[in-house]
Records
---
Amino acid sequence: MSDDISSGLSATTRTAVIAGVGGYVPPRVVTNDELARRLDTSDAWIRTRTGIAQRHVIDPGTTTGDLAVEAGLRALKNSGADGADLVVLATTTPDRPCPATAPAVATRIGLPHVAAFDVAAVCSGFLYALQTGAAAIGAGFAERVLVIGAETFSTLLDPADRTTAAIFGDGAGAVVLRAGERDEPGAVRDIHLGSDGGMADLITVPGGGAEQRSRGGFPGPEDLYFRMEGKSVFFAAVRRMAESSLTVLDRTGWQVADVDRIVAHQANTRIIHAVAEQLGLPPERAVLNIERVGNTSAASIPLALAGGMADGALKAGDRVLLTAFGGGATWGAATLTWPDLPRA
Ligand code: COA
C-alpha cells in the first residue's frame, strides 16, 4: 500500500477549471528591522537565509475568517460569478477549535446554505483543499467551488522565538473552480498528495488538543505556541516537493522543460530554488512573493497565484506546476494551465 494518493482527473472529461483568483493581506506591515528591534535578529540574516523582507500581520480583533471573506469575495468577483455550491477553507488557524470556520465565511460571503468545511494540512492545506474541490466537481457533487486558504499565524507565534517570527505572516488567497473540460485553459490537470505522520513533531502546536485534554491537562500559553525544527523541515520540504512534482508531471505527461511557471509554497526562497534545481528548472521560472508576505502557510500558494496574475508573471496558457510541503508532514503537487482572467 502506498503512503500517498494521486487523483486521476483524466479518468473523467468533467474537470475543475480555475475561473477566478483573489488574494488579501491585512494592511499592517512588519519589516525585518521592526522585528530586529525586539528580537536578536537582523534584516541581513532574514533576507539572506529566507528571502523575506517583510510580512503582513493582523491588527488585534481581526481573524482568519475575516481574511478568508476578503479573499473569497475577490476571487468570486474576478470570476464574474456571484455564487458557489461548496466552500472549502484550508487553515491551520481556525477562528475557534469548534465549529469549523468555513460555514461562517460562506454565510458572510452571501452563500448561507451551501456545503462548507475546513481542511487542515498546514502549509499543504491549499493543495488538499484544491483536490477536494476538484474531486467534488469531477464527481458531479458541485458545479462551482470556492477554495480558500487563510491563516493568521501571528496568533500562534511565540513572541520570543526569532526563527518563526522571521518566517510567518498573515494572509488569504482563494480560487473559484467551475466545471469544464480537461483541455481548456485553467484546467486543473492532476494532483498528487502525500503524508508521513512519523514527522508530526517537526511542525507542531503541542497542546490545546484532545491529546492534552484526555490526560486531564489544560493548555498554558507555552503549549499553544507553534514549534518547528527548521533544518529538518528544510531538507524534507525540498525532497518531498521535488518528488511529488515529478510524480504529478509524469501523470500529466509533461516534461520538466514543459513547465512555464512553478508556484511553490513560499516557505523560503532557498527551499524554492533548491526544488527548482532538483527538478532541473531555471530558478527564474519560480513565481515569488515571499519577499513581501513571508510564509502564509495554507494561504501561500493562492496568494502567490493572485500576485502572479496581478503583476503579469502568470499568463494565459502557461503550464503551471504547484507544489507544497507542510506540517503533518503533508505534501503535494498539481499541474494546471493558466486561465485567461481579468487582472485583479
Ligand atoms: N535571526 C538570526 N539568527 C537566527 C534566526 C533569526 N531569525 N533564526 C535562527 N537563527 C540562528 C539559529 O539559532 C542558529 O544559530 P546557532 O548556530 O548559534 O545555533 C543559526 O541561525 C543557524 O540556524 P539554522 O537552523 O541552521 O539556519 P538555517 O539556514 O537552516 O535557516 C530556517 C533556518 C528556519 C530559515 C530554515 O531552516 C528554514 O527555512 N526551514 C524551513 C522552515 C519552513 O518553511 N517551515 C514551514 C513549513 S514548510
---
Amino acid sequence: MVILGIESTAHTASVGIVTEQAEVLGLATDMYRPTAGGIHPREAANHHVAVLPGLVLDALERAHVRPSEIDAVAFAQGPGLGPCLRAGATVARTLALGWDRPLVPVNHCVAHVEIARVLSGLDDPMLLYASGGNTQVIAHHSGRYRVLGETLDIGIGNFLDKLWIALGGTFPGGPALEKEARLGAELLSLPYSVHGMDVAFSGLYTAALAHRASGAARPDLAYSVEVTAYSMLTEITERALAHRHRERVVLGGGVACNERLRTMVKTMVEGRNGTMFAPPPSLCVDNGAMIAWTGHLALSSGLSVPVEASAVQPRQRTDLVPAPWRSGGALGVRPAPV
Ligand code: AMP
Ligand code: MG
C-alpha cells in the first residue's frame, strides 16, 4: 500500500508518499516565509494554493510512483489555521475524487507522534511535541492520545520567533537563536514558569526584552532563553514520565531540531535509564510523510471519510480524536497503566 499525505496546517506546505512499512518514498516541502513579522493566515494559504500542485508532482516524481499506484490520500484536518487547512484539504479532496481513492483525515499532532513512534521502534513512547504553534506532552491511553501537559499561552516556537524578531532578527527565530546562543556565556536570571505539567512563555518574553533594554548582550540572552525554556520543557516531560511510569520519549515539532533541547531531554531520560529518540529534522518539522503514515494507520482502522464529511477542524484537540489502531497491531500492543 502507498499513501500520499498533505500537510498545510501553518507555514509549511508538504506532500509525502509513504509505504505501509513506513518507508518515505518521496517528500516535497515548501515553507511560506513572511516578509515581515509573523505568519499571516491568508497569505500563507495563498502560498499553499500556489505550491501544492507542484509539490504533488514533485513528490510523485521523487517517489517514482504513478498516480494509479497511490492507494489513499490523507490530509491534515486540524489543528491549524483555517485558510491554510482548507488549501490542503481542497487538494486532497480533488486528488481522492479524481483518482477514486479513499480520503483520510489526520490529526496533525497525532501524526507527529506516529512518525516518531514508528521511526524510533519504541513501544508506547511519550512525545514531547515542541513546534511553532503547539507545545504538548502527549501519551497514549485507552484508544486515544492524551495531553498530559501543555503551554498555557503560546507555543515554544512562536515564542522563539516572536522574541528573535523583537531582537532585530527575522522569521524563523528558533534556528537563528540557536546559533546566537552558542556564542553566549553568561546565564541571566529569567522567569521559570512551570505549573504542574504545563508551561508558560509570556513572562519569559517580557523579561528577556527587559534584559535587552538594560544592555544584556544578545548572545547571552539567547543562551539564557534556551537554557530556561528548554529546562522547563525537560522538567514537564520528566514529571509526565514519573507519573505515568514510563521511560521512553520521542521528540517532534520544529523546535525538536534544536541540539540543546535534544541533549537536555536525552540526558534526563538516560538518567532514568530510559531511551530518547528524535527523528531527523525533515521529519521533525511539519511534513507530508507523517500525515501519509498516520493516514495509513487510520485507514487500517477503517477511518476514511466521504468528501461531504471532510471539513477541516482548526481547533481539533489531540485528545478528541480516536486512535483505534493503537489497540493492537505493530507497536500498538502495551495496555497503558492508569
Ligand atoms: P513546526 O511548527 O513544527 O513546523 O516548527 C517550526 C518552528 O520550529 C518555528 O517556530 C522555528 O523557529 C522552530 N525551529 C526550527 N528549527 C529550530 C531550532 N534548531 N531550534 C529552535 N527552534 C527551531
Ligand atoms: Mg507541527
